Task: structure prediction
Amino acid sequence: MFVLGGLAFGALAYNLRAGGPLIAWDKALATTLPAMALKGPAYLKGLMAVGFYVGYRVLIGFGVLLGLFFIIKRCWQELAMVTIGLIGSTLIFLSLSNFFDRVRPPTQIWIIEDIPGFPSGHAIAVVTFYGLLAYLLVPKMPSTFWKAVVVAAALFLIGFIGFCRIFTGGHYLTDVLAGYALGIAWSGAVYTLIELFCQRRRRKKESVS
Result:
């Protein structure tokens, strides 16, 4: 995950710096999709707002509650995954978005942001957080059907939130794709390392006892 996500992000970053062919897709979608949204039904604005906040404030609130639950249950490995995963994804977004300093589409509607948009912070965070929920919940599901339901729900949320950001002109397509790539790379690295560290500590305790 770390290698594939890192390579995908590198390719998208190179495309941005070199003015590659995906830039044309970015501009075309940033023009057509917000125009379609403005012509759509009235409920569309509320639906897109749901996508924005589920990938931002709801995610933060859910993360805090989940962290408190892990503290109460003394699930230190899971607590480390949530805390390091979310804080790390925020720091990655802030550092890289300021480094690339890409201006957001001029066609933003409904929710306007002026901080740099590459990579998408929403995309990094939702892959990191909702991917972690699926990672933790799937082994606890009683059947293959419910495992598939959890995975499908996580993928739907991740895809829906990314689509909302593109549809309303909040991000270019490659902003979101780059965020997904970074989320995959960061999740693969941090969750694997935490699990390996905790497994090693458990083995040491077992050998001592």
Notes: The helical segments are 2-18, 22-39, 43-54, 57-73, 76-100, 121-137, 144-167, 173-208. The chain has one domain: 2-208.
